[in-house]
Every structure is written in C-alpha cells, then in structure tokens.
Specification:
- This protein is mainly beta.
- Helices cover 8% and strands 50% of the residues.
- The strands form three sheets. A nine-stranded antiparallel beta sheet has the order 4-5-6-7-17-13-12-10-11, with helices on both faces. It has a four-stranded antiparallel beta sheet with strand order 1-9-15-14, with no helix packed on it.
- Strand 4 and strand 5 form a beta hairpin.
- The longest helix has 12 residues.
Length: 236
C-alpha cells in the first residue's frame, strides 16, 4: 500500500466525526473531482486538480487544490508537489505521527519484497550503512531536516530519491524512514476552520539513477529554499 507520492493523516476529526485518510480502511478516501489546468511539453508536464477529502459516508470534510509539476532535467527528473487544503466542515483537526501522516514517498514494492537490506539513506550529517534507518522521536536529530535522500535497488539498477523540504512549509517537521522504501515527514497537528487560512505545503522530489552526493542534495535544497529573484524595471 501507499506507493508513490501521497498525503494524508491517520486522525482527521471534526465536531461529531472522524476518519483516517492514511489507511482509508472504513471507506474514507481522497477523491479527484476535476482538472483545473493541464500542460504538457518536452520539458514540463503539470496539472492542477481539485480533490475532495471524504469521510466514511462519502461526504467531504476538506477540499484540496493540488498541483503536480514534473521537469525533464539533465541528470534526473524533478517533481514539484504542492497543496492547499481547506475545511468545509467547521473546525477540522488533522493529526498523526511521522510514520503515518504528512507527505511521503514510497518506492516500487520490489524494494519491500526483495531489496530492503540494500536501501541506503544519505542525510545532512552523512551517509548511513545499508538497511539502517532513523526516526523521530527515538532519534531527536530527525527534525527540521532541509532534505533527506533514499537510495534503493530495482532490478540491477540503483536509484536515488531526494526529498526536499521548504522553509515555507509548516514547522516543526518530523522525519521518518523505512528500509522497505518509504520516507518523508509530518509537520505536526493542524487545525483548519472554514473561515480561516488553508494548510499550504510544497515539496520537491528529485529522482535519478545511481547514488547522489551530499553536495548535490545541498544544491537542490538551496535552489528550492532561495529561488532566483527577478527585478523588472519599467521605463517611462
């Protein structure tokens, strides 16, 4: 379960109701409603969609605007994922834990079924041994990471996924890892009100063949955290 990129919370509650958009065991689900925009080209593919977060009776308690953009770049593929989530059911609380909430990446199931001992994490403080994971709260260093990378095997090819956080996301952030190919972060309990601001998040995932270096990950993080600024001068 939970392959690819996903976003949810184990504890979604509101006055008189609750559900779990992480496991969706009782019929709750995130339902695509419409495509707002779609673009495709040789360098960029992007879509913007509306998604209903539905309870066990199929009625929305939150509505999400989600954008997914994919860039074909030299050396790998860059994915930019962003979301704006708002309540349509009064006061809604979204909660969970680093293993079962937030925005996460999971590799193909071959990693879990056959290759978990070959998974290698590279973090800001260095490369770890194959199969070794670190998790908050047992490891207090696994918070506020600007980036994390997971290298894994599919067939005879090694790949790396870099998970890049943004300083503009809700904080603090708490990170989790699994050797079976899943990692990501959760940014603590969030409370939404119909008349209040949405929860806005944005992340980047970089995918490439082979392992990457810490210097490459730092560069990705820097580009995301401090994008180039442009000044336009208008002549009168």
């Amino acid at each position: 379960h939970h392959q690819g990129l996903y976003y949810g919370f184990t504890r979604c509650t509101w006055d008189g109701g609750k559900c779990n958009t992480w496991y969706c065991h009782e019929g709750e689900h995130e339902l695509h409603k419409q495509v707002d925009e779609q673009v495709a080209g040789p360098v960029l593919a992007r879509h913007r969609v509306k998604i209903d977060w539905n309870d066990t009776e199929g009625k929305p308690f939150c509505v999400e605007d989600r954008e997914l953009a994919v860039f074909a770049t030299p050396g790998g593929t860059l994915v930019e994922w962003s979301s704006s989530l708002r309540s349509v059911r009064g006061v809604v609380t979204l909660d969970g834990d680093p293993q079962h909430a937030g925005f996460q990446f999971r590799a193909d199931n071959e990693v879990a079924a056959k290759r978990s001992k070959e998974t290698v994490y590279l973090r800001p403080d260095g490369r770890d041994k194959p199969g070794v994971t670190r998790n908050w709260p047992a490891d207090k260093t696994m918070t506020q990471l600007p980036w994390n990378t997971m290298s894994f095997m599919l067939g005879e090819q090694r790949y790396t996924a870099a998970y890049v956080d943004s300083p503009r996301n809700p904080k603090p952030s708490f990170y989790s890892e699994r050797s079976y190919g899943r990692f990501g972060s959760w940014f603590g309990k969030q409370t939404l009100r119909e008349d209040g601001p949405p929860v806005r998040i944005t992340y980047r995932i970089w995918l490439q063949r082979g392992e990457m270096t810490g210097e490459q990950a730092v560069a990705l993080s820097h580009d995301f955290a401090t994008p180039p600024s442009v000044t336009v001068a208008v002549k009168k």
